[in-house]
Amino acid sequence: MKRVFFKILMTSxxxxxxxxxxxxxxxxPPSNRSTATLEKNLLFYATTHYTVSQQGSVxxxxxxxxxxxxxxxxxxxxxxxxxxxxxxxxxxxxxxxAGAWIGWTTRYYNSTKFKIEVYNVYDYGGMAGYPAxxxxxxxANETNYGGGSYIASVANVxxxxxxxxxxxxxxxxxxxxxxxxxxxxxxxTVAFDNLMVQYxxxxxxxxxxxxxxxxxxxxxxxxxxxxxxxxxxxxxxYVFKPDYHLPTLSEVKxxxxxxxxxxxxxxAQEVEKNGLNLGEMNRLLLKKVEELMLYLIEQxxxxxxxQQQITKQQTQQKEIDELRKQVKTLLKKxx
Length: 335
Known about the structure:
Layout: H1 2-24, H2 46-49, E1 51-55, E2 73-74, E3 84-89, E4 100-105, E5 111-120, E6 135-142, E7 149-154, E8 159-169, E9 177-178, E10 180-184, E11 197-199, E12 205-207, E13 217-219, H3 249-259, H4 268-274, H5 278-334
Parallel strand pairs: 12-13
Antiparallel strand pairs: 1-3, 2-9, 3-8, 4-7, 4-10, 5-6, 5-8, 11-12
């Protein structure tokens, strides 16, 4: 009997996580007080690729609503007759299919009265129970809400615009707090879409660009770093070996006159088309510097030799001048 009870107990313990997952697999309400996975958030960095506007008796920094940091912003006195409205326009025309989720989150001063609307552009041809095309559809219209975050499901629409309207808050002067506005739309996004960093199925990474161009790392923008190390082979020190053939300056001049760039260095057209391989370019530039150093050393040898000859000539000239002086003195005595 004890063994049977133990087996039933263990089976129940193993099943509990599965049951819990099934009950909560739709969505985890995101807020400042809970953990959420928003890699399907269509509004992530919305101000950089959609048209986002605000109006009403208060205002906020709009980019902070969409950066995923959940840092709350708090308003001044909100006039219910002039509510705070955020409108997002230009969303991709992708139907939500099985479902999407929309909402907001805050830390304090949550909104007690608010409305969330989406603009449907999908035409169901007048089918009963489905929204008409090019109309606003109300997803939420709360008048006495008490939570620190809100999330509602969205179905049977293709959303081109979203409108959040906030009338009241729990702050002392009807202030409201807002941390994040989100629209979790699995059909319209890939994981971490519109993030600064994106990955493809081959493990290539794009920063600021959805296309890595087949490179392991593609960056659309400026890279700021304390240090960059590039693995290199065949470094240009071979230039200083005795068997290295150093082109003559006349050969280099002939090449420049014909091609308008240094030998081995890519042309302006090649750089504009293909960019630069920094490691290879540094190797080539070092090679040219080392070749210049050899030319300077050779030139210095010639200058040293010329100076020696000049010094010798000056010494000889002094001797000649002294002899002339002596000759003049002798001639003078004879006369």
